[in-house]
Amino acid sequence: MSIYLHFRAVAESQIRDDHTWLAAFMSEAWENDDAECAAGIAHSINKGWDAVNDLYAAADALCADTDEPWNLPIYGGRPVSHSADGDPSDPPLMLLEPSGVSQAARFLTTVSFDELWNAVGAKFGSVGWTREEYLDHHRDLQEFYGQAASAGHAVVKAVWA
Questions:
Q1: Which of 58, 50, 98 is nearest to 75 (CA)?
Q2: Which of 15-19, 85-89, 93-97 has the highest mean pLDDT?
Q3: Does this model's pTM top 0.90?
Q4: Structure confidence at residue 160 (pLDDT)
Q5: If you placed Cys at 157, which of 83, 94, 113, 135 could pair as Cys (CB 3.0 to 4.6 Å)?
Q6: Which of 140, 153, 129 is nearest to 50 (CA)?
Q7: Dihedral sign for Cα atoms in the order 58, 61, 64, 68
Q8: Per-residue pLDDT for 125 more than 70?
Q9: Phi, psi of 96 (to 5 degrees)
Q10: Are 3 and 159 in contact (CB under 8 A)?
């Protein structure tokens, strides 16, 4: 079974703060994931996004920044609650507003992947990914968040199982 964390950049003015509407929007985006990833407006991580977050958490010890921007790329944003009449089978959703997207982009461009890896990489062997796979996720997230921040977009996150 595959489970994905799906990211979709979108102009804040084009979205509704409504779980049912956002779930339908994200479902359509998921159906077009390959094209949207190629266009730079979507990204997804299969299964191990929590490990990517753990890698970024190492920045907490390396940086003096108390705002914890390391948390923004994966788990940043606020949960979008299901409405009373919503479908409980709709995926969990998070919404990261444009200011948070900009913070995430800044974090991803200023943090040293090598320093993060040196701090925690040895613990990650059990996850099954190599250093290069983490580096690929990091670079992909740098590009995705950089483009979203440049456009002033929000990022919607959904978990698909």
A1: 50
A2: 93-97
A3: yes
A4: 93
A5: 94
A6: 129
A7: positive
A8: no
A9: -105, 115
A10: yes
Q: CA distances (Å), 24 to each of 1, 11, 94, 150, 160, in order?
A: 22, 16, 14, 26, 13
Separation CA 74–CA 54 (nearest Å): 10
Amino acid at 150: S
Listed in sequence order, the residues at least 6 apart from 5 whose beta carbon sits closer than 8 Å to its beta carbon are 44, 45, 49, 74, 157, 158, 159
Q: Measure the CA–CA gap between 66 and 51, rounded to whole angstroms.
A: 21
Of 65, 58, 146, whose CA–CA distance to 102 is shortest? 146
What are the angstrom distances between the C-alpha of 99 and each of 13, 68, 102, 150?
14, 14, 5, 11
**Model pLDDT, residue 90:** 84
Using left for φ > 0, alpha for ψ between -120 and 50, and beta otherwise, residue 86 falls in beta
Label residue 120 by pLDDT band (50, 70, 90): confident
